[in-house]
């Protein structure tokens, strides 16, 4: 694509790779680069550095905050998010609750997308690290400790509730899923053209034998969590790339250490604080007893205001390394390393339409197995055999509610009812909605076997008056979300009947008339002399059956009304 005069949002733009991409992007003269980072200071610092390198009229804009939370929480550090009960409740609802319009609009990520309406989004945030290093295993240990107290007769319900909430706020996959949902919906609404992710393997390209851990077992569960999240993220982006109204989606996944930003002599910081120097003279040595405390200040004494200073190489968000550490980690057979500029070159080349061979979404596309010619041939044999058995046993095979969703079962049974009542789509089109509703009601009233099949698989039947419901002991819609009862309102009835109730009301009959009209309109838009392979569904496809083909009609509804068509073969 042409980058000139486009707005480019770089998430993680102040980081090592983000800055390299922003610098490279400046040469393409975009209209605006939005440098989004976690903190105000690092975002402003990055923008000032970029402005000094400006050669054209590109606007450089600073943006900051945590894109994984809602706007009111965007500038709070993790400990304030997790230790505050009100914040935890908000986070749980935002991540584990339904994706409502309210949740969408409160998301800081969604707000950024709506504010800048970027043509291109380049995501340099190490999302896998951000999520996995919340460390569900540590959270589990705290919950286990409180559960043990409760079982031993020393319950502390307030503390147990708090730790369970923290555990729920730490679950990686729900956070990742919600992040991708918000990202997709935001980019879809602002019509972003391109999304580019700089991903990670989680281990710097090494395997399960990776020797670098944070004092955990080898291989580290936390490290493997990062790799798992990174893999799940790639598969979600693979799905987004197959979604028709999503932006073009690519991901580059460096499998080596990324370095470097600067090499200097200075203070060594951990957690943004300098490392305090301590000393423990030999005469203060502690005698090892039966218990060893992790924290014990009785022996070591601080050396005044002295802090650790040394020569180090700064690798950005991956931290700082000593000379020996860097030499070890980048030596042959270890992580080795790749420079951020090399990554940036590949990103820009792919954006401009080039093919680096490093886009893993494209690699997955090429490596996965799709539909086959043989399966297409055998499909006809399977359908013919099933049709013969249905006629032999006088048994229509409509839906079992095992495939899901309930909406598909609802559509199939409604289509089957139209087939029984009117036989053809043309007859349905010529009927009034009142006639349609009455005929379907008559079939439901008289056909005990069909009625029983529908309600027994969890699909209720809403009668024409909209006030009576035929149902079995359980229903698939509304879905169970922890509450066994629901308020019956006109809006809820409308939603439930859409999602998974066979609906005999006239308003649903009108919707079906429009569907059949749409199918006929699609049929007769095709020229009679056009016998090419251009169209999947022509007149012969729809009219080769003597009666309504419920499977074909349901497929058409899912593809057109639901926008659920397959994009790639």
Characterization of the model:
With 569 residues, the protein is an alpha/beta fold. The protein has three domains: 7-134 and 172-256 and 338-367, 3-Layer(aba) Sandwich (Rossmann fold), CATH 3.40.50.720; 273-334, no CATH class; 399-560, no CATH class. The chain has a six-stranded parallel sheet, sandwiched between helices. Strand 16 (461-462) and strand 17 (469-470) form a beta hairpin. The longest helix has 21 residues, at 221-241.
The biggest beta sheet, please?
Answer: 6 strands, parallel
- Poorly predicted runs of 5 or more residues: none
CATH-defined topology of the largest domain: Rossmann fold
Report the principal-axis shape: globular
Domain unit count: 3
Keywords:
three-stranded antiparallel sheet, Rossmann fold, 18 strands, six-stranded parallel sheet, 3 domains, 23 helices, globular, 569 residues, alpha/beta, single chain, 12% strand
